[in-house]
Design goal:
239 residues; 13 helices; mainly alpha; MetI-like fold; 78% helix; globular
């Protein structure tokens, strides 16, 4: 059994999850502060890949980063790098498809956050960067963690957009999803079932690990932020 599809799927899902983690969090943070109309428009634009068929997303991506596309053509001409039919082509596809899950879930966590904690921190003279990383993110960690898991799982199981830009090349672009389809086409259902169970096992382990982490570090809402703000207040008093 060739394990390359597993390795390739994990590295693609891992890299795309890192990308969507930071882009999703910052997009959710800044968009949550915009006016209602602007927020609604941006929500529609950023979550569009979630409702579009993955093959349609893959088509638009192929037209963009393909050898004749507005992005793929200059990159190929200047740097000699082809952005399609390579293993890293799938990173573009999985990041775009999984981004809406990360963004919407984190946005929901930020919208439900008690903003009185932010106002309290601002009265102590704390910077917005400090408030974001030490007050807001710790209090919304459950939502962020859930969003990260969803994004990783979505990237790991992505097929439609991925196959449009990477195809299926054994030991080069093959992922678990494309391998299952290829094995089914060849009539090798036994091996296809093995890969299906591998994917199920990975998803199960990830979800169990997240639940264990949440149970280990769970604390009452606002406790971490109040503790942090209280420490800063005491430091301010000492000064």
């Amino acid at each position: 059994m060739d394990w390359f599809p597993l390795y390739n799927s994990l590295r693609i899902a891992g890299i795309s999850t890192v990308i969507t983690f930071f882009t999703g969090i910052f997009a959710a943070y800044y968009i949550s502060k915009l006016p209602k109309f602007t927020k609604g428009v941006l929500d529609c634009v950023l979550t569009l890949p979630m409702v579009l068929p993955p093959t349609v997303v893959g088509f638009f991506l192929l037209m963009t980063i393909g050898p004749l596309g507005p992005v793929g053509a200059p990159v190929l001409e200047i740097f000699g790098v082809r952005l399609t039919m390579t293993w890293y082509s799938a990173i573009f596809a999985t990041a775009i498809v999984s981004f809406p899950l990360m963004y919407r879930t984190v946005r929901g966590a930020f919208d439900g956050f008690d903003h009185n904690l932010i106002y309290s921190a601002q009265t102590l003279g704390l910077s917005n960067t400090y408030i974001f990383w030490r007050v807001m993110v710790p209090n919304c960690k459950d939502g962020i963690l859930a969003a990260t898991v969803l994004a990783f799982a979505r990237a790991l199981g992505e097929y439609g957009a991925t196959t449009m830009v990477t195809g299926y090349i054994p030991r080069r672009t093959a992922t678990i999803s494309t391998t299952v389809y290829q094995l089914w086409r060849e009539g090798n259902e036994v091996l296809a079932y093995k890969w299906v169970f591998v994917n199920l096992a990975i998803s199960f382990v990830v979800l169990v690990a997240v639940n264990m982490l949440e149970n280990s570090y769970r604390q009452p809402k606002g406790k971490a932020a109040n503790h942090t703000i209280g420490e800063e207040f005491e430091k301010g008093g000492e000064r």
